[in-house]
Amino acid sequence: MRLLEVQGINTYYGLSHILFDLSLEVYEGETVCLLGRNGVGKTTTLRSIMGLTPPRSGTIKLYGKEVRGKQPFEIARLGVGLVPEDRIIFPDLTVRENLEIAVKKGQKRKQDGGWTIEKIHRLFPVLEARDKQWGGTLSGGEQQMLTIARTLMGNPRLLLLDEPSEGLAPMVTRVIEEQILALKKEGLTILLSEQNSNFALNVSDRAYILEKGQIGWQGPIHELREKPEIMMTYLGV
Ligand SMILES: Nc1ncnc2c1ncn2[C@@H]1O[C@H](COP(=O)(O)OP(=O)(O)O)[C@@H](O)[C@H]1O
Ligand SMILES: [Mg+2]
């Protein structure tokens, strides 16, 4: 089943035209990556889907229903959770408080399969170890995990991850890779953006490669692995 369907969107910042007739789709249970160099429009694509920078034209459907033009909070309510690039956590709250603050009113309870702090701790043991520490004392990798965990507390059906491995040491990246694979096993649908192709290739089923606000290539990960010239052309790696 198609969870997300983006059709021919055009997104602008003021007069700058950033996304050009961009289309992509994500099926339920898939992990899809949006690859591309710095500045090609990965973040803008995720912001367009979330309604933070609404496209001026095109359609964005969630479970077949048009959502373009809806407010970000409405899109969140429909089951989309965005983990932004800049890892916004509250430095003066403890790790636990950072998680508690993310709980929505009328949130699904544990028996409904919703996320709880206990379930978060099973996936991110380091957050349990840091439970009473201030958010501001966490390392970059821990902050990334806390940001992901906070978004999960809203029980998204589609998780949008903006460059989760950015600025992290390879060892930490590998841990996050495992965590994303665990989320996938849980049945979560994920769309992630990355410049780090290894990381993205290890967790994804399919890829879209963005170039100057347009999709330059799309296909399954095994094809990317078999044809290194594609990566060379679009990503220079
Ligand atoms: N708030 C903004 N105002 C104007 N231009 C922006 C803004 N944010 C990003 N851009 C421009 O939009 C383009 C795409 O940016 P972005 O989506 O952040 O790319 P990526 O995430 O792939 O690095 C870039 O040329 C960038 O300079
Ligand atoms: Mg970006």
Describe this structure in words.
35% of the residues lie in helices and 27% in strands. It has ten helices and ten strands. It has a six-stranded mixed β-sheet, with helices on both faces. Strands 2-1-4-5 form a four-stranded antiparallel β-sheet, covered by helices on one side. It starts with a strand and ends with a helix. Bound molecules: adenosine-5'-diphosphate and magnesium ion. Residues 13, 16, 18, 36, 38-44 line the site of adenosine-5'-diphosphate (ADP).
Count of helices?
A: 10
Give the SSE order as H and E letters: EEEHEEHEHHHHEHEHEEHH
Largest sheet: 6 strands, mixed
Spell out which ligands are present: adenosine-5'-diphosphate, magnesium ion
Q: Write down how many β-strands occur, each being a DSSP E stretch of 2 or more residues.
A: 10
Task: Please state the structural category.
Answer: alpha/beta
Assign a percent range to the helix content: 25-40%
Average residue-wise pLDDT = 94
**What's the arrangement of strands in the largest beta sheet?**
6-7-8-3-9-10
Shape: globular
Q: Which percent range describes the beta-strand content?
A: 25-35%
Rg over CA atoms, rounded to whole Å, is 17 Å
Low-confidence segments, ≥5 residues, pLDDT <50?
none
Q: What is the first-to-last residue Cα distance?
A: 33 Å
Key terms:
four-stranded antiparallel sheet; alpha/beta; binds magnesium ion; 10 helices; single chain; 237 residues; binds adenosine-5'-diphosphate; six-stranded mixed sheet
